[in-house]
Amino acid sequence: MAKQSIFGRISTLVKANINALLDSAEDPQKMLDQLVRDYTNSIADAEAAIAETIGNLRLLERDHQEDVQAAAEWGNKALAASRKADELRQAGNTADADKFDNLAKIALQRQISEENEAKAVEPTIASQTEVVAKLKDGLNGMKQKLEQLKSKRSELLARAKTAEAQNKVHDAVKSIDVLDPTSELGRFEDKVRRQEALAAGKQELAASSLDAQFESLEDVGELTEVEARLAALKTGGAPAQAAIDAPSAPYTP
């Protein structure tokens, strides 16, 4: 029964559709790992069972060969006894001739028995030979499936790592999206804009204050000139502007 279950497992595993199993699996990597373990263990069990089957087949073949050889030997003994009986009968020794004829008959009976045993085991040898051939093919198929599983596992792991790397890159890009106001970069950019606006406001305010200072200086200048002209009028002199506008006296050396 144990061997039958192993042989059935070989057939099931060889016929298994790996892609269909992976499609239906919640975690393909775990399923692949489990399948690799199952196949490895099943191959070891199958090799032991097949080795035992081959051993039994070789015993049957050996027994068959021994039966064939024994049948041939009994045939030779029957022939020898028959010839001896003929010689004795020709010599007039009928009693001894009959004795050797009886021995020949016994040898022939043993020959027939050995031949029957050899013939009886031949169908079993033929069927076992066919079974062993199929088992060897199934074992080779399992080994090929195992290599396919390992290859699929490597491919799946590589794809998983690639997908993981792509997701990390995508997440990293998303985290620094300049258009995302909630991102750190967006908040930093907003802070910079506010600082720039503050600096511009201070600059504008400073410029406005400087213009006012220069305007006050011009007002002071005008008041000073007014005071000077007023003083000139009080002393009976000409206004300062008139003095400025009057032509200069010719220079006399």
UniProtKB/TrEMBL annotation:
The answer, when asked if Coiled coil is one of the entry's keywords, is yes
Question: Which Pfam families does the record cross-reference, listed alphabetically?
Answer: PspA_IM30
Q: What name has this protein been given in UniProt?
A: PspA/IM30 family protein
**Any coiled-coil ranges, and where?**
132-166
Q: Which domain of life is it from?
A: Bacteria
By sequence similarity, the record places it as follows:
Belongs to the PspA/Vipp/IM30 family.
This protein's species is Microbacterium insulae
Which keywords does UniProt give here? Coiled coil
Matching entries from PANTHER family are given as: MEMBRANE-ASSOCIATED PROTEIN VIPP1, CHLOROPLASTIC, PHAGE SHOCK PROTEIN A
